[in-house]
Design brief:
Its EC number is 4.1.1.23. Pfam families: OMPdecase. This protein is 46% helix and 16% strand. With 283 residues, the protein is α/β, with parallel strands linked by helices. α3 (40-54) packs across α14.
């Protein structure tokens, strides 16, 4: 793995290509919209077209594991090929698998997705902290050791999220406790003025919740993966209002607004470039 920490590589990619993460979400409706069959051949054609369009052109690509897993072991093999081809092209990947467990099970997930030997290794992995932030320790430590990252769910854009994430324990919201954990793990990077290896998932559609819950995102030195742009209703202009003084650490995620431009490689690349430029201008 690269000797540079994940946060350093992410900042360089964002500076070079613009702060944008493009999803690869080969769900059935998109396969049909591209005129592809909803089977393994359609999955492979869709995924590899996205690789051709985005590799070397965007800061980060985020495959959604579930849409590959639904096709069984052969679908997972396509996912591994996607991750490998993007890695060979020097394009950062976040595997959106939202893993979260305890003990040896979490250690196995960490080895599968974050170790140098993992068959499904990516540059970063999304993880769920709702068994307690401390339950993520195996993944946090493997990521730190290999120069990879994790993105921890903190304040998500789905309407069910606030019921858990805004809930309080010991006078602190669950979301704030997650941010506190990330800040502690990123402390050394923060002291160097760098992004840390522990990122946070904070939706671009959460309104004033970041400020209202006192999350202190800027002090956490966390990269901030921000879903919700485009089809979910948020626009580039919302980012500054939602994230405040942490806006420079935001990595907006788009999927449908870019993927709907397919199946043309050129149209996909142009859509990604358009969104990257609009986000860069807004920030």
């Amino acid at each position: 793995m690269s000797p540079d920490p994940f946060g350093v590589r992410l900042r360089a990619a964002m500076d070079t290509h613009g702060p944008l993460c493009v999803g690869i979400d080969p769900h059935a409706a998109l396969l049909r919209a591209w005129g592809l069959p909803v089977d393994l051949s359609g999955l492979e054609r869709f995924a590899m077209t996205c690789v051709e369009a985005f590799a070397g052109r965007v800061a980060v690509v985020k495959p959604q594991s579930a849409f590959f897993e639904v096709f069984g072991s052969r679908g997972v093999a396509v996912l591994e090929r996607v991750l490998g081809d993007l890695r060979d092209a020097g394009t950062l990947t976040i595997l959106d698998a939202k893993r979260g467990d305890i003990g040896s099970t979490m250690e196995a997930y960490a080895q599968a997705f974050l170790s140098d030997e993992g068959p499904g290794r990516a540059d970063a992995l999304t993880v769920s902290p709702f068994l307690g932030y401390g339950s993520l320790r195996p993944a946090l430590d493997v990521a730190a050791a290999t120069g990879r990252g994790v993105f921890v769910l903190a304040l998500t854009s789905n309407p069910e999220g606030p019921q858990v994430q805004h809930a309080e324990a010991n006078g602190r919201s669950v979301a704030a406790a997650v941010v506190d954990g990330a800040a502690a793990d990123n402390a050394q990077a923060a002291a160097r003025g760098e992004l840390g290896h522990v990122g946070l998932v904070v939706g671009a559609t959460v309104g004033d919740a970041v400020a209202r819950l006192g999350l202190g995102l800027a002090a956490s030195a966390a990269p901030l993966l921000a879903p919700g742009l485009g089809a979910q209703g948020a626009g580039p202009g919302d980012l500054r209002a939602v994230f405040g003084d942490a806006v420079g650490n935001v990595l907006p995620n788009v999927s449908r607004s870019v993927l709907s431009a397919g199946p043309s490689v050129q149209a996909l690349a142009a859509a990604a470039a358009r969104d990257a430029e609009s986000v860069r201008a807004a920030l």
